[in-house]
Design brief:
Radius of gyration of chain B: 40 Å
Distance between the termini of chain B: 68 Å
CATH architecture of one domain in chain B: Orthogonal Bundle
Subcellular location (chain B): Membrane
CATH topology of one domain in chain B: Regulator of G-protein Signalling 4, domain 2
Strand content of chain A: under 5%
CATH superfamily of one domain in chain B: Regulator of G-protein Signalling 4, domain 2
Membrane topology (chain B): Peripheral membrane protein
Shape of chain B: elongated
Shape of chain A: globular
GO molecular function, one term (chain B): GTPase activator activity
Order of helices and strands of chain A: HHHHHHH
Largest sheet of chain B: 4 strands, antiparallel
Oligomer: heterodimer
Organism (chain B): Oreochromis niloticus
Radius of gyration of chain A: 23 Å
Number of helices of chain A: 7
Main location (chain B): membrane
CATH class of one domain in chain B: Mainly Alpha
Largest interface: A-B, 78 and 81 residues
Strand content of chain B: under 5%
Strand order of the largest sheet of chain B: 1-2-4-3
Number of strands of chain B: 4
Structural class of chain A: mainly alpha
């Protein structure tokens, strides 16, 4: 009887673990898109569209992070791990790893959020004259693709209740409190977590589409017979 | 999760220092204004055209025009903007300068502007490196590779996150349109060139220590601020003033005096080690060198402070004072300095030592300070602290300065030193010699070793401390018949220890006493003395004296001493001025029944004025050096197991043997 119970528990644990991993992936995706968007704040690509996209991305992220299922799932398992001895050291290590990764992701996201807050404060778009202040960086809004990517993110679990997403400052404070809470309640020694892949692993084995280096992209057309030594800096390693 | 080991900022995260950043931002915003800013041009690439590029010459021209400065300055200003990261070069992206030609630049997006508020994170750098790794299949620059390895080691716990994030960012970037993608990549690359420069480059973001307040923040004036201003102005009204003519005169005098001694303003003989790499100058001016240089000796004449602060000068002065028999002043002064600068743990003992040695009535090296100062000092010693002896020290310092210093400068000791002082020849090195010197540079002695040597020397000095004449004459009269009793007609100066140079000066002093200057252990003497204790027996004494005459040569100095000691009490009683008022003198040592008391007499200021105040049974304890005193006390303390009288305000009962 108890063995059956235990196997059920294990299965449940595995499923939750997979959910967490998928949620982690989703969070990464959302945060990276968020970074792309924030990078355009204050530049010539800035505009109400960008800001709206920013808000939506934030909402998605908020839903992933602060979903109750996420927290309870993690916390419960890690806190109660002292009971379930048979799950073993391996499982605990995996959990700790996931925990640390999640906290790192949160931290990274928080950094971007703060920057976004600053930039929005520095470049308000309330009036038309403010548009003159936007820095002409060469970007002319190309964030549509990014927005689409964000939209394609699937949440690992369905949230029944749709909380209203908080505005930027509240979001920041909320995340901060959540992080500190998490760090205090669960004593995980993050230095004991190890990476699963060795260094330089990502350099090999990217079998997807051909990678264009920056030099290729920045190749300048050489007008025949012109004086211009149209050098784009190919000499130096980009 | 990051381990936040920020430099010791005491919890203050935001410590802006670069006030220039805000100002640079303003300038950049002006520059990029489409109407009045720098002229924008498109950058033509193979795949596309990217707008909003500016040329170097346009930047320089605009800056020169806007701020009304010349081209050179405009160029440096522009380079500063590039170095800070507000503008980045598109071609030659590693050199952060503005080239006043057609090379292209672009404005950096505000996301990548430098701020001190949010310091640049290593996590981001790791993600960036991982992205580059993916892109360039592992071909990174050398310093980037090193950084990558380092970050992989230190951020191992979140490395999975970093790689995952790098991949995601890479994919997200691909979603953008080509020109924007190029721009973003350029921006990111430029950002990291500014904030993680390759080794050997000078980074504009290197701003040193962080400051407490934001120079750009607006500080509202609070009532507290005004109160402070009021207090400050009130205090400055009350400050004592010096006429500027006086203070300027003092400055001029100082400059004129020290001008020749300043290695910046005048030549350093033989040569300045910093310039020629030849350390003769330092070797000649070591603190404990035998023969000082002429410049150094000249410096001693400038002021008493100079003399004292130079260890060699102090030695010379000490020698002089020894000859004058007022060495206790300098010793006291040094003891006070020791107390002031010493460790707190030893302070109490030091204060006690000093008191017992110098200040107590009948102390072995009593210094002559006026009553009021003595009172203050003694009162302060109830609760000794570092500066308790300050008043006395100042008094003694002024005494030495006004009295002894002048005499020192005219004394034969000083003249001798000055005559012997060496004046080194100036070095004339050729270039090749200079190179050789540079090659032969060696580090100097470690300060630990120097300190050990100093301490050894101090200990040595303390062990062979000079004795002051006042102590010598404590129990004696300069009466010839002393010699009769001791049976010694001439002072055995030959046998005397070498540390008694002034034997020659004191012919009248009875030899046993002078012999007694030999620093032997008091306990031994005591032991020996107790053997021969047969007071009140003149015959014994006479015979002892006779013994002395017979066996002077054979006996060791110590025994001589002992024998010679016995009659001295009789001398004392024979002394015309002796008032054998027993028990009225204060004691500084506890008395044991088996030991004779050491009655400290009234202090004698003058050699020839002897007021001896000894009870008849007192035994002359020959002059002991300070540490014998201490040894005495230590031993007696052990024997008695009682606490000594330290506090002078407690009534000193006539000897009853208790401490």
């Amino acid at each position: 009887m108890s063995r059956w119970r235990r196997s059920v528990d294990e299965l449940a644990a595995r499923r939750r673990q997979h959910e967490c991993e998928r949620a982690q992936d989703a969070l990464s995706r959302v945060t990276s898109c968020f970074q792309q968007l924030v990078a355009s704040l204050g530049s010539s690509a800035d505009g109400s569209f960008l800001r709206d996209e920013l808000d939506e991305t934030r909402t998605v992220a908020h839903r992933i992070c602060s979903g109750n299922a996420w927290l309870s799932c993690r916390l419960l398992r890690l806190l109660s791990d002292s009971d379930s001895a048979p799950s073993g050291v391996q499982d605990r290590q995996v959990l700790e790893r996931l925990w640390v990764l999640f906290l790192s992701a949160l931290e990274h996201f928080l950094y971007d959020l703060r920057k976004a807050c600053d930039l929005i404060g520095q470049f308000p778009l309330a009036e038309r004259s403010n548009r003159r202040l936007l820095v002409n960086t060469g970007c002319v809004d190309g964030v549509v693709g990014v927005a689409a990517r964000v939209a394609s993110v699937q949440l690992p679990w369905l949230t029944s209740e749709v909380e209203p997403s908080p505005d930027l400052t509240n979001h920041i404070t909320g995340l901060e409190t959540m992080m500190s809470e998490m760090q205090q309640r669960v004593p995980v020694a993050f230095w004991s977590v190890e990476a699963t892949q060795p260094a330089w692993a990502e350099a090999r084995g990217e079998p997807d589409d051909l990678v264009e280096s920056l030099e290729d992209l920045m190749e300048v057309e050489i007008i025949a017979g012109s004086q211009k030594t149209a050098c784009c800096g190919l000499g130096c390693i980009a | 999760m990051t381990i936040r080991n920020v430099l010791r900022d005491h919890g203050q995260r935001y410590r802006p220092r670069m006030a220039c950043l805000k100002k640079a931002e303003k300038v950049v915003l002006e520059m990029q204004d489409p109407a009045t800013g720098v002229k924008l041009q498109p950058q033509r690439l193979v795949i596309t055209t990217i707008p909003h590029a500016i040329t170097g010459e346009d930047i320089v021209a605009w800056l020169a025009d806007r701020f009304q400065i010349d081209a050179q300055e405009a160029r440096s200003f522009g380079s500063m903007l590039v170095a800070l990261g507000y503008i980045y070069p598109i071609q030659d992206h590693k050199r952060l300068v503005v080239k006043p030609d057609a090379s292209l630049y672009r404005f950096q997006t505000p996301y990548f502007w430098p701020t001190q508020q949010w310091p640049v994170e290593d996590t981001d750098y790791a993600i960036y490196l991982a992205k580059r790794n993916i892109r360039k299949k592992g071909i990174l620059e050398l310093h980037e590779q090193e950084q990558y390895n380092r970050l992989h080691k230190w951020m191992n716990h979140k490395w999975d996150f970093i790689v995952m994030q790098a991949k995601e960012q890479y994919r997200a970037a691909k979603e953008r349109k080509k020109p924007d993608r190029v721009v973003f990549d350029c921006q990111e690359r430029a950002y990291w060139v500014v904030h993680r420069p390759p080794p050997g480059t000078v980074s504009a973001m290197d701003y040193g220590l962080e400051r407490l307040i934001d120079p750009n923040a607006h500080e509202a004036k609070t009532p507290d601020d005004y109160e402070r201003i009021m207090i400050f102005t009130q205090q400055s009204i009350m400050r004592p003033r010096v006429k500027s003519s006086v203070s300027i005169g003092a400055l001029v005098k100082y400059c004129a005096t020290y001008k020749g001694h300043d290695p910046f303003l005048s030549k350093c003989l033989p040569s300045n080690p910093w310039l020629t790499d030849d350390v003769t100058y330092w070797a000649l001016n070591m603190p404990n060198v035998e023969i000082p240089t002429k410049m150094r000796v000249e410096r001693w004449t400038f002021s008493f402070g100079e003399l004292l602060s130079d260890p060699r000068g102090r030695d010379d002065f000490r020698l002089f004072l020894k000859k004058e028999f007022s060495g206790e002043n300098l010793a006291f002064w040094e003891g006070c300095e020791d107390l002031k600068w010493g460790t707190a743990a030893t302070m109490k003992e030091k204060a006690e030592q000093i008191y017992k040695t110098f200040l107590a009535r009948g102390a072995p090296r009593w210094i002559n300070i006026d009553g009021k100062t003595m009172e203050i000092t003694v009162k302060g010693l109830k609760h000794p602290h570092r500066y308790v002896l300050d008043a006395a020290q100042t008094h003694i310092y002024m005494l030495m300065k006004k009295d002894s210093y002048g005499r020192y400068l005219k004394s034969p000791v000083f003249k001798e030193t000055m005559k012997k002082a060496v004046c080194p020849e100036e070095h004339k090195f050729s270039d090749s010699q200079l190179e050789q010197n540079a090659r032969n540079r060696r580090p100097s002695l470690s300060p630990i070793i120097i300190r050990q040597q100093e301490q050894e020397q101090k200990a040595k000095m303390a062990a062979s401390a000079p004795v002051d004449i006042t102590q010598l004459c404590r129990f004696t009269t300069p009466v010839p018949h002393l010699a009769v009793y001791s049976g010694i007609t001439d002072p055995p100066s030959a046998n005397a220890s070498p540390s008694l140079p002034f034997l020659a000066h004191t012919p009248a002093c009875p030899s046993p006493i002078s012999v007694a200057l030999d620093s032997t252990s008091a306990s031994e003497r005591r032991a020996e003395a107790s053997e021969g204790e047969s007071e009140g027996n003149p015959e014994a004494r006479a015979s002892a004296g006779g013994n002395v005459s017979k066996s002077r040569v054979a006996l060791s100095l110590r025994r001589l001493l002992k024998r010679g000691c016995t009659p001295s009490s009789m001398f004392a009683s024979l002394s015309p001025k002796c008032n054998s008022a027993a028990g009225t003198s204060s004691r500084i040592q506890p008395i044991t029944p088996d030991e004779p008391s050491q009655a400290p007499p009234r202090r004698i200021g003058n050699f020839f004025q002897i007021k001896v105040d000894i009870p008849p049974e007192c035994r002359i304890y020959p002059i002991e050096s300070e540490d014998e005193d201490e040894e005495n006390r230590a031993i007696s303390r052990e024997r008695l197991g009682t606490k000594e009288i330290i506090c002078p305000w407690e009534s000193l009962t006539p000897q009853n043997g208790t401490g």
